[in-house]
Amino acid sequence: MRFKTPKLSLISLLTIINIITRVHSQSTTSANCTAELLTINSQSELDALSSCVTLSGSINFGRDIVNATINGIQTIRGALRVTYGAKVQRLIAPDLSFVGGILQISGALNLTVLSMPSLANVGSLRFEYLPRLRTVEFSSQIDSLGDDTAIQLVVWDTAIESLADIIYRKVESVQIIENPNMVEVDLPIRNITGVFVVRDNGNDTRVSLPYLGTVGYVHMGANVGEVNLPNLTAVETDVRITSDYLRRIELPGLVNIGTEKVATTTRRASLEINRSKNLTAVSFPKLEWIMSDLRINGSEGWTELGGFPVLGSVGDDVVIDGDFENINLPNLRPGDGESRFWINSPQVDCAALLREPIFTEGGWRTNVTCNGGLYDLSPEEETKETKKSLSGGAIGGIAVGAVAAVGGALILFFVCFRRRRVDLPKILELEDGGISKRKVAELPEAKPVAELEDPETSVAPELEGSIPLAELEASSSPNQRRAPEHEVSIPKPPLEQK
Ligand SMILES: *[C@@H]1O[C@H](CO)[C@@H](O)[C@H](O)[C@H]1NC(C)=O
Ligand SMILES: *[C@@H]1O[C@H](CO)[C@@H](O)[C@H](O)[C@H]1NC(C)=O
Ligand SMILES: *[C@@H]1O[C@H](CO)[C@@H](O)[C@H](O)[C@H]1NC(C)=O
Ligand SMILES: *[C@@H]1O[C@H](CO)[C@@H](O)[C@H](O)[C@H]1NC(C)=O
Ligand SMILES: *[C@@H]1O[C@H](CO)[C@@H](O)[C@H](O)[C@H]1NC(C)=O
Ligand SMILES: *[C@@H]1O[C@H](CO)[C@@H](O)[C@H](O)[C@H]1NC(C)=O
Ligand SMILES: *[C@@H]1O[C@H](CO)[C@@H](O)[C@H](O)[C@H]1NC(C)=O
Ligand SMILES: *[C@@H]1O[C@H](CO)[C@@H](O)[C@H](O)[C@H]1NC(C)=O
Ligand SMILES: *[C@@H]1O[C@H](CO)[C@@H](O)[C@H](O)[C@H]1NC(C)=O
Ligand SMILES: *[C@@H]1O[C@H](CO)[C@@H](O)[C@H](O)[C@H]1NC(C)=O
Q: Where does the signal peptide begin and end (predicted)?
């Protein structure tokens, strides 16, 4: 019996401490082997372990083994990993029913068969860069042990078609990304404490998690065509929706986005709908509050912005860009006084909109920018506003001044801009062991961490975005007539900048 050890260790880590009993025919007694980490490179090494019904330790498959059958072993208390670049084509474990740690298969380019028909409990699952693996045979269905929360369910850049046999109920992080053959993400998960990302899978992917109640962060990205999350009531941080396939998004049970009504410097939670050209309607019938921002970038066919009948509070900014004719946020009332309300939607009649209860009731202290005009809604300013009437020249002067000021502010903003930290719920990407490094080099975007950084990095494109430009454009449009009728302070671009 010969065991290879990891390259890093100089002395063998392998210590088979005890072999309690041998397997007797028909009996349930079992051999119990202990080893910290076994690196397997041949079938004979695997066969040598076949008397170990329980292995207290971990197994790594090295690069050389091509067809591997794990006979005998039922329980692996540690992890089961396949080294990046492994030649393995078939990995079969007929008896294996329990893996306490992670089952990680990354970068096995020729793997076509993964069959573990008895596997019932796995601490977490990570399948990455498996371009030939279409099916996973987990016929007994996989869950975590008892009430444990699985650390991760990551399926990234594989040919896998279905996750039907994975029945985790609680997971920290779920990332289903870049699996072109997957058109259905249907999981019985009830609770995701960290990120939940589905993007760049098969065209028109249907996402259905009928039992999901709470989640840390949601991103329904490219190619998602349908989202069914009927039992989702709360999201701890952001909800991002960015898919051209979506025609309608409905989150019927969602009550709040964020943990508290008011954002703090370290905790933010926004609803962002963007890059969804085919979206024509949204429905958030129970959404009461959003801790940070409501950011909506609409599309041509989406003319009525409604679907938020009970939304009462947005902690920071409301940013609405699009072709909306009507904006109907009937219950929305001022945030904390620091927030901005920014609208760029040429069809909207700003004057009429500003007469809606959303702006006339409740002492809104936030200045509103509507199609380039800045409207001061401070209660004490309201009277002045009606009295004052400036000549066209003065208005022009102010507008030019405002434009210059915006430019100045922008430059300042660029100079001073620093990234803000966004606290996401604890997400464990720790089990990587560096295995995905090569993959990252080959696939520049396939870095799970990027997803975590998303809320930060997405700030940068916004700087290039047309918020300030829109402001400039709008000030030369007819809407200028409704532009400031009093001294204008610099309208800060509605970027996340606290
Ligand atoms: C195997 O050994 C481990 C560690 O010594 C022990 O915790 C476990 O209960 C044993 N299992 C069996 C089936 O004997
Ligand atoms: C692996 O299994 C496949 C299918 O049974 C077989 O065609 C192939 O020759 C095997 N390769 C090795 C190296 O054993
Ligand atoms: C995968 O298989 C091809 C031939 O089918 C072979 O050329 C290549 O080296 C294999 N790659 C690995 C990592 O085993
Ligand atoms: C989800 O899990 C978290 C952390 O374990 C827990 O605090 C929360 O109450 C759970 N939510 C539900 C709906 O079970
Ligand atoms: C998805 O749609 C795009 C554009 O319509 C097409 O080019 C691509 O081949 C489709 N992908 C799949 C996996 O069907
Ligand atoms: C919905 O979630 C609640 C807890 O938030 C749970 O009690 C209820 O059973 C769930 N309903 C379904 C259909 O999963
Ligand atoms: C968007 O809708 C148009 C018109 O219905 C359709 O032709 C197009 O394929 C849709 N795009 C996507 C990505 O679904
Ligand atoms: C939408 O995405 C674009 C990049 O595609 C970005 O520039 C813009 O700021 C985003 N808008 C919102 C409202 O998030
Ligand atoms: C909306 O999206 C367009 C392009 O997709 C982008 O140019 C614009 O800056 C976005 N608007 C906002 C407010 O982010
Ligand atoms: C709103 O504008 C007025 C003057 O137009 C300015 O004094 C005030 O500080 C602005 N309020 C906010 C919250 O930006």
A: 1-25
Query: In whole angstroms, what is the distance from residue 261 CA to residue 264 CA?
Result: 10
Which of 141, 167, 193 represents a domain boundary (last residue)?
167
Task: Tell me if 211 sits within 8 A of 420, measured CB to CB.
Answer: no
For the chain, the 3-state helix, strand and coil shares in percent, each to the nearest 5, are 15, 30, 55
Which one has a higher pLDDT value, 336 or 145? 145
Q: Which of 228, 208, 218, 220 is nearest to 244 (CA)?
A: 220
470-491 per-position pLDDT tens digit:
222 222 222 222 222 222 232 3
478: DSSP letter: G
Cα distance between residue 78 and residue 99, in whole Å: 6
Handedness of CA 50, 53, 56, 61 (dihedral sign): positive
Ligand 2 center to 235 CA (angstroms): 48
Q: Is the CB of 67 under 6 A from ligand 2?
A: yes
CA of 443 to the centre of ligand 9 (A): 27
Tracing tokens 């990680």 back to the chain, one arrives at 104
Question: Which atom of ligand 5 lies at the shortest distance from residue 202's CA?
Answer: 13
Ligand number nearest CA of 182 is 5
Q: How many angstroms is it from 331 CA to the middle of ligand 10?
A: 23
Task: Please report the pLDDT score of residue 263 as a whole number.
Answer: 81
The rounded distance, in Å, linking the Cα atoms of 353 and 76 is 64
∠42-48-52 over CA atoms, to 5°? Answer: 125
Atom index in ligand 6 nearest the CA of residue 233 equals: 5
C-alpha of residue 224 to centroid of ligand 5, in Å: 13
Domain end: 147, 167, 187, which one?
167
Confirm or reject: Cβ of 243 under 6 Å from ligand 1: no
pLDDT in tens, 144-171: 998 899 999 999 999 999 999 999 999 9
Interatomic CA distance for residues 216 and 195, integer angstroms: 6
Task: Quote the number of domains for the chain.
Answer: 2
Q: Which residues line ligand 7 (CB under 6 A)?
A: 244-245, 278
Cα separation values, 484 from 344, 359, 372, 479, Å: 16, 16, 9, 11
Q: Has residue 375 been placed in a domain?
A: no
Task: Look up the domain containing 467 and give its range.
Answer: 439-444+462-498
> Is the CB of 12 within 6 Å of ligand 2?
no
Regarding the beta carbon of 213 and ligand 6, being less than 6 Å apart is answered: yes
